[in-house]
Hints:
single chain, about 25% helix
Amino acid sequence: MENAVIIGTGCAGLTAAIYTARAELQPLVVSGTMPGGLLTTTTIVENYPGFAEGIDGTQLMVQMQQQAERFGARVRYGTVESVDASADPIRLTIDGDTVETLSLIVASGASPRRIGLESETKLETKGVTYCATCDGALPMFRNQPLVVVGGGDSACEEATYLTRFGSVVYLVHRRDQLRASKIMAERTLANEKIKPIWNTVVTEVLDTKADKVTGVRLRNVQDGSESELEAAGLFVAIGHVPNTHLFEGQLEMNSGYLVPKNGRETSAPGVFVAGDCADYIYRQAVTAAGQGCEAAIDAERFLAAVSHSQKT
Ligand code: NAP
């Protein structure tokens, strides 16, 4: 029987691991399919406090894991296949093995929605990115034309942020109206460095032969006309998909995101949540880490209360 199982080894999961390990709960941390989480897909992380010169995303996650392991966390490289969140104790299947636990911290993250192009996959980290805050300031994007795809708050936020670095930011949206909130849309369209391209989709990222982004091929969805646009970066901001399918019908969700209450609790006793799988607003490494800490403290208090009630 485990005291605490943590699903996810991103910032939220590993911070929860550090705290639960230091509380001597010997947490079992399950890596999932992307050990280290989304930060491992970025190069230099410049906005995580404590690293004046920035730190490589993978390096940061390796250090977080080592920190958790130093206090007794056990990282298992594997995938959680199913969870019975209402069982007492909570029951999981991890790569075919049944594991029972008194508490569970869900830090399974979210995956950026992809456009779904082959060239997009091939040029990821070579100019295609899903996080302007993480990558926008890289030298390769400085004073270069950049393309943002999407029409929601994320796309507007990313486009506005990128005006600090790019020579011009093209905002490519599949309709002629932004989905973003009014204030965000107005602010975005008032920015002289942002050039909207309406009713248009990206059909190919150029240039896989050059092994870096040199531009995009576009198609106007109204008249079918095709064109090419020169750019050094493609920032895809068409939403995120929280990794919460295991909990459908078990935990309260809002548009696929788990809903925290009373701190980091969920609708199932003993199950806590942290990071991008429950956060559609901030989605930063440092906020995920903070939520991981909160979830660990909540889990620790839950376990202490259970243990106390069993003794009395
Ligand atoms: P979103 O609101 O779902 O917008 C996604 C955008 O991407 C939409 O404009 C959508 O087009 C477009 N899109 C989706 N799939 C596409 C595809 N396959 N190809 C091309 N375009 C595609 O996602 P979001 O902007 O990430 O925002 C998610 C939530 O977080 C929202 O509730 C938002 O308000 C919130 N948020 C808030 C803030 C803030 O308050 N500061 C910042 C970021 C996000 P259509 O419009 O045609 O559907």
